[in-house]
Amino acid sequence: EKGGYDHFMLKEIFEQPRSIRDTLRGRLLPDEGIISMSGVKEYGAKFENASRILFVACGTSWHAGLVAEYMFEEFARIPVEVEYASEFRYRNPIITEDDVVIAISQSGETADTLAAIELAKKKGATIFGICNVVGSSIARASHAGAYTHAGPEIGVASTKAFTAQVAVLALIALEIGRRKGALTESRFRSLISELDQIPKKVEQMLESEDMTVSIAEMYKDVSNFLYLGRGYNFPVALEGALKLKEISYIHAEGYPAAEMKHGPIALIDENMPVVVIATKNGQYEKVVSNIQEIKARNGKIIAVVNEGDETIREMADHVIEIPDTDEAFTPLITTIPLQLLSYHIAVMRGCNVDQPRNLAKSVTVE
Ligand code: M6R
After folding, report:
1. Which residues are in the SIS domain (predicted)?
2. pLDDT tops 90 at residue 328
3. Cα 339 to ligand 1 centroid, rounded to whole Å
4. Which of 253, 245, 251 is nearest to 357 (CA)?
5. Pocket test residue of 84, 104, 106 for ligand 1, highest count of atoms within 8 A of CB
6. Which amino acid residue places its CA nearest to atom 12 of ligand 1?
7. Which helix (H) or strand (E) holds 322?
8. Helix 160-180 / helix 331-348 crossing angle, nearest 10 deg
9. For residue 223, pLDDT beyond 80
């Protein structure tokens, strides 16, 4: 049942080229230059005229919502808020009929997320559900939705469900952007053909597993890890840290890289590994300065960079290269080595990766 892998988590990590392809299949049609999604079509006017899009979710699904914030604002030019379902539901939030609330949930059973959409529905918002489990409570409580087609996820740590969520959210953001005219036809077409290449690039990324094994060997005994990223890769830093703490029990924190000097830099010494997602984008130079600041304090740098980045190679202790893609889609690729790193560290520490202590696959109580 584990398909020859030692754990479900590893199997699910390696399934990602297929699960992302399944999520895009029949929806992303690059040859025709279109995206076809029935739920989005049906509620197209609601999305186009939305005064705001609110994402509600928990855990890893909340991280997918953060990636979507960048996508929806860039592609569709709609203001976005990303909410922890648990906070949103208890603070008497301001919701109007012009709001579209997108609930993201692998299981479709998370108690707080379900309660958040019930509340928003009562206040007249349109509810769109993004679930992996077909027929789940959140899917049923939504007006419309789009399933991720990741297939059953058994490992408690979410891996392929996350990338499928990001893929489906990319499709929706692109389609709304096209409908609103926020994206030009040529930009839309170039983005969809790039998105179509992602499964292949994820496959390529998985080939660098050995690199994550050797990094894991060096750092498996540390007590703390820091993860930094900016822009589209800030949520990836959060996700990398969550994945490490939940399965290896190493304390880890993710931060937007620029926040480092507002506190976390005090933690840096020769015992602190810092995973920096430093792909080429608008803020690249600034991330390079962060790396220099960490090195000046003897921190250890594990950098995720674009292929052929010599600048960072000279500064970092370890470099993991990713294939080039549009900045917006980098989370689908940069997440992969971080999943593998957590997995290998957890295995080396003798942890139960598929069933970490104190955690349940779906959190049906608040
Ligand atoms: O089923 P959901 O996506 O609603 O679950 C949300 C979180 O409980 C979940 O993502 C959790 O954080 C995972 N264990 C993360 O790997």
Report:
1. 43-182, 215-356
2. yes
3. 15
4. 245
5. 106
6. 59
7. strand 318-322
8. 170
9. yes
Residue located nearest, by CA, to atom 14 of ligand 1: 157
ipTM over 0.95: yes
Enumerate residues 6+ apart whose C-beta is below 8 A from 1. none
Q: pLDDT category, 320, cuts 50, 70, 90?
A: very high
Return the residue whose CA atom lies nearest to atom 4 of ligand 1. Answer: 105
When pLDDT is cut at 50, 70 and 90, the band that residue 281 belongs to is confident
Q: Is the CB of 159 within 6 Å of ligand 1?
A: no
Query: Residue 1's pLDDT is what?
Result: 87
Q: Is 60 in the pocket of ligand 1 (CB under 6 A)?
A: yes
Looking at residue 282, its pLDDT comes to: 77
Ramachandran region of residue 263, left (φ > 0), alpha (ψ -120 to 50) or beta?
Answer: left
361 among known catalytic residues = yes
- Specify the DSSP element, H or E, that contains 351: none
Q: Which of 220, 280, 295, 361 is catalytic?
A: 361
Cβ atoms of residues 348 and 250 within 8 Å:
no
Look up the pTM and report it: 0.98
Give yes or no for residue 113 having a pLDDT over 80.
yes
CB 185 within 8 A of CB 32: no
233 Cβ below 6 A of ligand 1? no
Asked whether the predicted pLDDT for residue 196 surpasses 80, the reply is yes
Measured from the Cα of 158, ligand 1's closest atom is: 16
What is the spatial distance between Cα 122 and Cα 251, in angstroms, rounded to a whole number?
39
HSE-up of 35 (CA within 13 Å, CB side)? 30
d(CA 251, CA 158) in angstroms, rounded, equals 18
Quick one: what percent of the chain has pLDDT higher than 90? Answer: 97
- Tokens 């899009």, residue located: 53
Residue 14 confidence (pLDDT) = 98
In short, whether 246's Cβ falls inside 6 Å of ligand 1 is yes
Q: How confident is the model at residue 181 (pLDDT cuts 50, 70, 90)?
A: very high
